Amino acid sequence: MHFQRKSSNMTSSSLLRFFFGAAPLLLVIFGSAWGSNTTTPLVMWHGMGDSCCNPLSMGGIKKMVEEEVPGIYVLSLKIGETIIQDTENSFFMDVNAQVAFVCNQLSQDPKLKGGYNAMGFSQGGQFLRAVAQRCPSPPMKTLISVGGQHQGVYGLPRCPGESSHICDWIRKELNSGAYTDFVQKHLVQAQYWHDPLNDDLYRTHSLFLADINQERGVNETYKKNLQSLENFVMVKFLQDQIVDPVDSEWFGFLKSGQAKETETLQESTLYKEDRLGLAEMDKAGKLVFLASDGDHLQFTREWFNAKLVPYLR
Questions:
Q1: pLDDT (tens digit, 9 = 90+) per residue, 113-136?
Q2: Helices 220-227 and 123-134 meet at what angle, rounded to 10?
Q3: pLDDT for res 9
Q4: 246/240 Cα distance (integer angstroms)
Q5: Which of 240, 244, 247, 295 is catalytic?
Q6: Would you tell me how many other CB atoms lie within 10 Å of the CB of residue 300?
């Protein structure tokens, strides 16, 4: 797989098709630059199965953003000491420990002292939201979630290779008991598994998602910190065959007690009770809902340039 210098839409064969949480995506080298001397740093978090510095994914994106916004400092997060550890941790490292690791890293980076923008790809989107809620220093200014699953997932519709032993193991563990202590502590995807048929189990035993979504009570600090964002941008992929349900990318989900009908963020109890401050942010124009007419993490150079780069300037 390689980058191409063309402006037309990419064919499906040239796109990286990973299961939910996988973040590699194929973009083309951007052309013109915006030409700004004052830039806000950018922190990026990859998704499942990816790493910080793969030249065909996050490494390439980092380079392209630097070309689009001259002088910008881009930090592509590496969770662990090596690229291998970074990739493995996206499957198996406790999400809360990952968030704490990132918060410590950001707090020690002098280039981020004045604040930064954040862009998370797939599961990196909800992980960076946890950073915004838990770690206000240095301050996150704009959060861009590219296909993030903010109400979690309920299904594993596709993996990269149905014979993959990793995919088979994940399916087995989620089906046998996503909310058991062992699975919650050792499988990243279980920590944002949201079973609408077992709300009590989810609220009680979800180590990560139920906490950051205020399912066990309202943490006013989480709410205050999230509301300090200037913008919270959510990208939904209209033909997504990876994230189930895709509404989660816009903070919607399945209605409680069944697994067919979905509801929007605005129809949810989370929004109506404003437990996370999203209703107030929405009224203030801080929530931005963007759509891309493609499968998970599929979009063109032109779309990225027009829709996301302006938030990085």
A1: 999 999 999 999 999 999 999 999
A2: 110
A3: 42
A4: 6
A5: 240
A6: 18
pLDDT at 14: 36
Q: How far apart are CA 243 and CA 154, in angstroms?
A: 8
Q: What is the DSSP letter of 153?
A: B
Does 240 qualify as catalytic in the annotation?
Answer: yes
> For 57-102, how does the pLDDT look when each residue is reduced to its tens digit (9 = 90+)?
899 899 989 999 999 999 999 999 999 999 999 999 999 999 999 9
- Element containing residue 116 per DSSP (H, E): strand 116-121
Active site residue 205: no
Q: What is the pLDDT of residues 257-267, one digit of tens each?
A: 998 999 999 99
Question: Residues 122, 145, 206, 292: which is the catalytic one?
Answer: 122
Residue 15 has pLDDT above 50, yes or no: no
Q: Give 193's strand partners.
A: 153
Nearest to 96 by CA among 184, 193, 172, 180: 184
Please give the Cα distance from 232 to 303 (Å, whole number).
Answer: 18
3, pLDDT greater than 70: no
d(CA 229, CA 98): 21
Q: Please state, in angstroms and as integers, the Cα–Cα distance from residue 5 to each residue in 27, 30, 55, 114, 169, following that order.
A: 9, 8, 15, 35, 38
Question: Are 178 and 190 contacting, i.e. CB atoms less than 8 angstroms apart?
Answer: yes
Of residues 109 and 31, more confidently modeled = 109
By CB neighbour count within 10 A (0-12 exposed, 13-18 middle, 19+ buried), where does 84 fall? exposed
Beta bridge partners of 45: 120
Lowest-pLDDT choice from 45-54, 71-80, 149-158, 274-283:
149-158
Q: Which candidate, 167, 156, 149, places its Cα nearest to that of 246?
A: 149
Considering the candidates 46, 150, 194, 296, report the single residue annotated as catalytic: 296
Bond prior to 24 in cis (omega within 30° of 0): no
Joined tokens for residue 68: 């689009």
What one-letter code names the amino acid at 254? L
The answer to whether the CB of 112 falls within 8 A of the CB of 75 is yes
